[in-house]
Amino acid sequence: MLQTGCSQGRLPLSLECQSVISRLQQRHRETGRVTERHRSGRPLATSHADGCFNVNSGLRNQMMSANQLQARLREVRGVPDHTTRHRLHLLAWAREHLRWMRNQWLRGTLRIHFLITYIRNQMRIRSDCRLL
Asked: Region Disordered: which residues (predicted)?
């Protein structure tokens, strides 16, 4: 549409979208650059360095799966394995209990209720300790 003579200002109006170009131009006029500004809220899931590492690892090792690349990134960043082991333990528990019959669940419900109560009490104790 720009080639047909439509201006950059009218292009977003005709496409019914916000003008990224006009916002970038305005930001360049105000600050002299177009880099991302500091933003509040949750940070990006991966940093720029992590993104570069993922791209380079993927290009170097094209036969690696996404899970293997993720594990390699976890090693580099120093994320402990206990989080992964914990997830695997939960998955094993779910698979083990997948085919339980009703009476087995009724017996297990008392244990689960006890565990939930115990965990809630532990959380309450921890939160009380933080207040002191």
From this structure: 28-47
